[in-house]
Amino acid sequence: METLGIIRTCKKCGFPLEARPGAREIDGVCYPCINHENKKDINFKERQEWLTQYIQENKGDSIYDCMVAVSGGKDSHMIVRRLIENHGVKNPLLVTVLDVFTQTKAGEHNLKNIAEHFDLDHIYFRAKPRTWKAIVREELDDLMHPLKKHEEDIYQIPLDIAKAFGIKLAFYGENSDFEYGGSDDLYIFHKNSTDDLKLIFLGAIYPYSIEDSLEQARAVGFKDLDDMNEWNRQGLPGSHIQIDSIGYYIAAWTKFVKFGFQRVTDIACRYVRTGDITKEQAELMIRENDHVIDPLAKRDFCNHIGITEEHFDKMLDKHANPKWVKKDINGHWKRKDFVE
Q1: What is the separation, in whole angstroms, between the first and last Cα of the chain?
Q2: Looking at the chain, which terminus has fewer C-beta neighbours within 10 angstroms, N or C?
Q3: How many angstroms separate the CA atoms of 271 and 210, rounded?
Q4: CATH number at residue 60
Q5: CA 315 to chain centre
Q6: Predicted model pTM
């Protein structure tokens, strides 16, 4: 068993084995690594042929062939492009659930691009602003899980809109249950599918990866932060992940003080599985970046939900889990085994 100090890690990718709630392992190897290897045994070509036929037979009588919930990111572009170019979809309805944070130039471009490039109808939904902010503040103070309700809305509201239009099919990108090891079955249909609305993971039809989605998206006009020459973001590596708005990234970062890892660990370990970096490179990336909170994102988050940065820091201290994190000499929360 390989370790980083006191925290046991996957001997293949370096992921902290006990940090994610419900995480599973076999002989020191995390389930995401096991599932990644098992993808090699799945006949994706057969699944792609099946999907084309299934859409044709089950799209129903709506003027829209299907619904795709889109943030404007790389996965959104990938889904829409493949449905239209590979599976005979002619008229998908796009639905976006907005947040209140400052939109990046890349985010603004990408949301416009995905509809304009394919010439599609696109519905924007924005919740009651004051109510939305009050809920986020409560979620931060009580749970250290800001945007919990928003994340639920991102899933549910597009489905409600699809039902209102009589749409029978909705599409998602990755099957996160499989990719993060919650299930060892790369199932095609979301478990909340009903007879009236089938929810399909395109990440179960094509082998999902960050780089594949990025390649598909760039081919149809997707832009990242570097392309738009904006926001030299600290902490999260790369300029093409979580780029739609500035403050939104804080919601992903806040789990660091509770579990000792956040988005950097997820991404670094994924890149090990796909062979883009070594386990040693991933461990260095995690050590140097996972604890870093981008100051612009923090400021944008606090300003838009109506709290001070001092209050935010107080809530971090309140919810920090001493099993996984510890303050360094400068008062910054870090993974416990990375504190000198």
Answers
A1: 23
A2: C
A3: 9
A4: 3.40.50.620
A5: 24
A6: 0.95
Nearest one of 273, 283, 276, 262 to 34, comparing CA atoms: 273
- Taken in order 246, 247, 253, 257, is the CA torsion positive or negative? positive
In a domain, 253, yes or no: no
pLDDT, tens digit, for every residue of 304-313? 999 999 999 9
Torsion angle of alpha carbons 222, 105, 210, 84, nearest 10°?
A: -30
Distance between CA atoms of residues 236 and 264, nearest Å = 6
Rounded mean pLDDT, 69-91: 97
> Which structural domain, as residue segments, surrounds residue 81?
43-218
Residue 142 lies in a domain: yes
Closest by CA position to 17, among listed 32, 30, 36: 30
> Is residue 252 assigned to a domain?
no
Point out which residues pair with 256 in neighbouring strands.
Answer: none
Residue pointed to by tokens 């660990």: 265
Report pLDDT for 1: 36
Contact present, 150 and 301 (Cβ < 8 Å): no
Whether 176 maps to a domain, the answer reads yes
Domain count, the chain: 1
As beta bridge partners, residue 8 has 3
Phi and psi for 200 in degrees, rounded to 5? -120, 135
